[in-house]
Amino acid sequence: MKVELEIKKSVMKNIFMSVLFLVGSFSFAQEAGKAGELLKNEASKTEIESPNAKRTESRNSNNSGFRNQNRNNNGFRGKNPNYQWNQQYGYSEVFLRIPEQGMFSVELGDQFISNNSGRFRFFDLPSGRIPVSIYENGYLLYRTTLNVRNNSRLVLDFFTNEGLFLLDSYPVQNQSYGFNDWNDVWNNPYGNSGGWNDGGSYANVMDNSSFSEFMDMLRKNARFDDSKLSMIRQQMRTTMFTSQQISALVKEVSFDKNKLSLAKSMFSKCVDKHKYFLVYDAFDFESSKRELMEFVQNS
After folding, report:
1. Could you give the CA distance from residue 136 to residue 120 in angstroms, rounded to a whole number?
2. Residue 266 to residues 78, 180, 186, Cα–Cα distance (Å)
3. Which long-range contacts (CB under 8 A, 24 or more apart) does 2-11 make?
């Protein structure tokens, strides 16, 4: 009887681990509109459908605002433009991606980019509210306003059938981006980044030596859960983690409530979600394990 009981336990454990593996495997898929905050389309139906909304016409209209400030009645700039050699600009960026085939144009403030690559990167932007318009083949598709903060980068995705989504905002300091691949900028908010790089490891993931150093710093400088969570979340801004690393970090937290909060927030930063079952071992209570399992299954 004892042998039969052990066999049954072993079989049930194998089934349980297989289910967890399958749940993790299906969590990598990206879907339009499933990440970020939808920014309302402020372009009216009339504007979108009207030929007058075509960008080549709208940019020369009297309603274009800044477009005509320095032009005379003949449409040319004046002979004595007002040079501003030492104007203090805020340093902000906006990265916008359109993952669809086609010729798109994006107008952000007084900057304009057209291409068929689907990647639009705007630099040296002043902080504040900046209008953004998106065109396909010269026709207006979408218009809204972005609230850009100084020394920050907004990352957005646009889908013609779904809208414009603000994925995240990253601090920009000394132009240190913290990403090994441009795709990671947009894909990280979906929790679907961290592909293998040429060195045979995941991009943006700490190697064992760096992770050990981070753990030492965490134990040395953070005695309480609040401090530990703050340090870990700061590192999450520019780093992806393996399930094993996340499990080790969660174990450093004292209370299950805080463990659960951290484990949930780090799921999107995990590069091997199919192994996230390793994190369950970091919990003291079965109820917390079950709640995390449900979270992973529904993510």
Report:
1. 14
2. 56, 19, 17
3. none
Element (H, E) at 234: helix 225-236
Check residue 124 and give its pLDDT.
Answer: 83
Angle CA(203)–CA(262)–CA(152) in degrees, nearest 5? Answer: 55
Task: Give the separation between CA 153 and CA 271, rounded to whole angstroms.
Answer: 23
Tokens representing residue 68 in the block: 């005509």
Class of domain 37-66+88-190: mainly beta
The CA distance from 202 to 187, in Å, is 14
Residues forming CATH 2.60.40.1120 domain(s) in the chain:
37-66+88-190
Instruction: Supply the pTM of this predicted model.
Output: 0.43
Query: Hey, what are 100's tokens?
Result: 């669809």
Angle between helices 256-266 and 225-236 (to 10 degrees): 0
Q: For residues 34 and 170, which has the higher predicted lDDT (pLDDT)?
A: 170
Q: What is the mean pLDDT of the chain?
A: 75
42-90 confidence digits (pLDDT tens): 888 888 876 555 554 444 443 433 334 343 444 444 555 565 544 555 6
Which residues pair with residue 134 across a beta bridge? Answer: 106, 142
CB atoms within 10 A of CB 171: 12
Which phi and psi angles does 34 have, rounded to 5°?
-95, 0
Q: Determine the pLDDT at residue 104.
A: 96
Do β-strands 92-97 and 119-125 pair in parallel, antiparallel, or remain unpaired? antiparallel
Q: What secondary structure letter does DSSP report for 206? A: P
Q: Residue 170, Cβ neighbours under 10 Å: how many?
A: 19
